[in-house]
Amino acid sequence: MQADSINPCRVSLLAVKNLKVHFPVKPGRFRRQHETVKAVDDVSFSLAPGETLGLVGESGCGKSTLGRAILRLVEPTAGEIFLAGENITRLAGAELRSRRRRFQMIFQDPFGSLNPRFTVEDIVGEALDIHGLTDSAAARRKRIAELLESVGLDAGYAQRYPHEFSGGQRQRIGIARALAVEPELIICDEPVSALDVSVQAQIINLLRDLQQQRGLAYLFIAHDLAVVEHISHRVLVMYLGKIVEAAEARDIIRSPQHPYTQALISAVPEVDPDAKRQRIILPGDVPSPIHPPAGCPFHPRCPVAEARCRTDPPPLRESGKNRIVACHLAGADSQTF
Ligand code: SF4
User: Fold this and answer.
1) What is the CA radius of gyration of the chain?
2) How many Å apart are CA 57 and CA 236, to the nearest integer?
3) Cα angle vertex 236, ends 309, 101, to 5°?
4) Does domain 3-102+183-325 match CATH 3.40.830.10?
5) Ligand 1: which of 327, 333, 335, 336 to mutate, judged by most atoms within 8 Å of the beta carbon?
6) Which residue ranges have their beta carbon within 6 Å of ligand 1?
7) pTM for this model (two decimals)
8) How do residues 229-246 score in pLDDT, each as one tens digit?
């Protein structure tokens, strides 16, 4: 069972099938043999035009590597990536560059991702130049002004440098740069986690407005379910390189089934001050992806693990309408989790 099976939309803009990204680890002082980090391990899902798919999990669970592999910024070890039905997994050179117009990325660090020596006009205009999207200097300036205004920035800022802007304004510049090539899909890699809470809401609202105006699809990567909840139609939860639960956003938030999802949601503040969610504190850290635990990879931290969880990996299977879960107890009385 794969996460694309819960996508009720028939048309896929992006389809990821059995994707693996494994990194070799060389022998060193404390390691005699070559070993492998399974950063992304057999992940499948699909994304419809105009949809936002949230991808959540703790740091090191493989979600950013998955985003980069889709953009081919890291090479997949196995599996396939389809963009609007075309297999782009092995494209290279000019062919890959031409497809990159269709999908862009927004990064976590809005300062680090902008060249400090470039003006805003240089930064946003670079993508226009690479893809030959304007045919005169005047058209280029006009387009850059439109892009800045579309993300809520004054067009008069075009000659300023990144250090002259706040974190939220810098993220808006990054969004304008991504929009320059009129993509259909934007991979948002923790786009608000470096920002203050009030600024986070402004950027989320901007992304939502742009989605409605332009029909954009987002793969929205975050470690914080509270952020993902506000923007996503569906949510995938990753743990140690694998999807452990996928469902529509409201269902995941209201009735998480996997014990790991339940722990993540227990940390999300309630909107209703009278509602009391019991916080689930997981013991220990995420295990090393070089030596993942046998059986269910979550079993050393799982509050309801059984004997079989130490030996038998739980398959990802349907558990109710439009939901898949990798847990032996899923579909049983979820109150017992
Ligand atoms: Fe916990 Fe077992 Fe379910 Fe894994 S399979 S999440 S260890 S109950």
Assistant:
1) 21
2) 9
3) 140
4) no
5) 327
6) 258-259, 296, 298-299, 302, 304-306, 309, 314, 327-329
7) 0.91
8) 889 999 999 999 999 999
